[in-house]
Predict the structure of YdhG-like domain-containing protein.
Amino acid sequence: MAENKTAPTGADVNAFLAAVEHPVRRADGFELLELMRSITGQDAVMWGPTIVGFGSYHYRYATGREGDSAAVGFSPRKSNLALYGLTYGPDAGPHLEALGKHKTGAACLYINRLADVDRTVLEAMIRSGYQHVMAELHRP
């Protein structure tokens, strides 16, 4: 079975964000860094070359594939900000309706810039997504 390509790297998060070319994406990345750190109480860790993650969990699929992933995180991509772990919580649906301009993928939330979304709703989604993943880890 292939190894998970997205794993903690030990790379410097601040250096990664400082190197983001797009000035708005770079500023949004630093703002998300502080916001997610504050909400989760976790230090940021680089997962692979482009994902900034907070907390971690172990998953195992019915297929036998397993690995580790960040509980929540983000990646400042050229075309948007990809946010991970925010759509897992039980209240994600109502939050998405109130969030503002966004798109969703299989497990990602995509926004163009933080100015496009309601910060209070985004904070609630980060908190809910993180708490949901961490609660799942501690179920008997």
Observations:
- The two ends are 28 Å apart (CA to CA).
- Residues 81 and 113 are 7 Å apart (CA to CA).
- The mean pLDDT is 91.
